[in-house]
């Protein structure tokens, strides 16, 4: 029986590593449990993970590529929790005090509409896969002032949370429909379809996937005519801090898009602040 | 002697007869002692009165001559011991008087008498003495004394074994004393003694607890998980019909678990212990009070136990208790401490308290801030501090209300330093408040007091005051910021940054970092008053003793470098070699080469800010950074093991490449 232990990738070509054509390429470390043989195997189409096992049985011996080895403690297992998984690494753009602004598309078949939105991160606990903050919606027609809500986020780190929501009326089909709208999710799709992504190691992935659920209104009453019944599927880019999201609420128009970028409050560069709770 | 009935029984008369008996001897001794004993038994006032009249020296004198004479009656010795014991029972000044009168060695001698009744009487009297904290300290390091102790525990006599246990409970204080008792096999003897049905079980458990408290070594050496009898005995005793016995058994088990957690892993047993303790809280006396502290120490530091306690509705039960009228201070303190430990990690616990109807629970805790007893005030502060670890409720502005803030600010002027420190810790969480209510705090005039306390000679006060200021400064609006800075001033910030304590330095730099965050104008604060603040930070980075100081300091530079051209140039001046030190290497290179990813991250962000291509001076800065070896250092980091560092390095390199390629 052959197991896939880890994924890795070569550089993007600029570093002079061996990929040649400058593309990111996926490699899999395959191990044969009978012989103990371990080899890196190139899979030309990372989307085709369902056939990976079959592919591996036709192993081609390749020279070991200077790839970045992604740590994976055990053979890929499709059941149970992952106590050996590590949390995601901190990303300085997803830290307390960071602000983002952009738009939330709230179009319905009747009319086109978009609100300006500001988001601020207020809490971040990677060990528990937790993040929280506020969302401020401006130019909301039914409100005189900007509407501020407090949201809490689940970080998909495959340790605390997987890609399957398992609540908020979101089935796994709904989950997959939304996650696949993010290009950076494509390489992960096949594995997610199998087990929700439980066996994936995302600790070195350049995108962070989250679900954001608004919990309460901060500055208006709950009777303001706005709803916070749904939640957002969110994709955060560690590279530039850009955020894309899709709102899901069975009672609202589907796929209302959230697009945010980091803001610098008129500065020429990035600024950081922090607090420490006792 | 003939006399009127009243004069025979009046105190002075009795004393006179006692004196005469002591001097002359005879039948009268026994009679007068009996009368004296009957007078004082159970009567504190009479005990004190006879002590003042000088009864004790006479009694001791009778005891002394009876001990040395072979012809004296056994009942006389018994009466002497009983009388002395009675004086000592429950009255500290009685114990002192007994000791001052020289009774102790005589009583000890009675222990080796052949008549069992005399031995018992002596042991009982000594036990009374050892119940009091003014009893003489027993020296376990003296071989002879240890031998006596061991022989007491080996006897088949409850009064003697009980005495041995009392001596240990009284005198065993230090870890060395615990060790020597453990090494002498005392724990095993106590465990054996616990097996029998005996009235002294409580005494044995108390001494057992005294020896093992806070000392994992002793437990590991003497008591093992394989010691089934011990566990069996203690677990049985948790079901005893006497509440004090149940409590002591729980205490022993919990002390073992606190020292060696692996010895008590079973969820079933842990849940049972919590349930037993919850029942014991209903006891309205000292047992109930001590139960609360025992429960508190059980769940402290262990999230799993807090969760178990939460699941058996501990919070609801405690809230019910809290609402009873006229709670004694000890009880209230105990309840607050259990709630504090429950809320130390679990959001679920905090939610329950914050969502209780009409905020009753929070109101009672807030009332505790103004309690007359110091310990209650401290416990209330700790409780609030732990509840306010909830970012969710801080974001709702839940805590920034006058009902909570005003009494807390009052405590900053409390006469007790420990109350001031506890209040500062609670305030430092509350001021993280994300809503606009920080202004409520600033307007209360409290900032001035925080700044005063930040100059205290007491390290705890100083550190927590600066901590509170740092958290207050986080994301605060410009107007409040101005108000805070007016009190703080650059001079205070500079001296805080070079505080003797590294922890204070770290918080001070965190405070400055938050100060210069926000709108671009905020950066001007570090240039206030001749701008020496920035160079002070530069110097600090070279002499920093812990990485957290370096991180905060570098982020100050990072934040300043995100400002205008003038700001970026000022940072360049600080980080390039030759500016503040003789070193040839830039502080940046040192940080970029650090093993600590957080330091590398902070340094790269600063470089990103300095080389933002849109700035007119960017090219010149890139050249200078290249000349200082910083750009080539960055190239070495293009595949840094930390993802965050790697991404920032690529951004920084990308920016510097905008100005054309460099040949290395």
TrEMBL record, chain A:
Q: Name one GO biological process term.
A: protein targeting to vacuole
**InterPro entries, alphabetically?**
GID4/10-like
Q: Which GO terms describe its cellular component?
A: GID complex; vacuole
The UniProt entry, under Pfam families, shows: Vac_ImportDeg
To which protein family does this belong? Belongs to the GID4/VID24 family.
Q: What is this protein called?
A: Glucose-induced degradation protein 4 homolog
Source organism (scientific name): Deinandra increscens subsp. villosa
Q: What is the lineage of its organism?
A: Eukaryota, Viridiplantae, Streptophyta, Embryophyta, Tracheophyta
TrEMBL record, chain B:
Where would you find this protein in the cell? Cytoplasm; Nucleus
Alphabetical list of InterPro entries matching this protein? ARM-like, ARM-type_fold, Armadillo, ARMC8/Vid28
Sorted alphabetically, the keyword list is:
Cytoplasm, Nucleus, Repeat
Check the record and name the SMART domains matching this protein.
ARM
Species annotation = Deinandra increscens subsp. villosa
**Principal location listed in the UniProt entry:** cytoplasm
Quote the cellular component terms of the Gene Ontology held in the record. cytoplasm; GID complex; nucleus
Q: Name one Pfam family in it.
A: Arm
In Swiss-Prot or TrEMBL terms, this protein is called Armadillo repeat-containing protein 8
Q: Does the keyword Aminoacyl-tRNA synthetase apply?
A: no
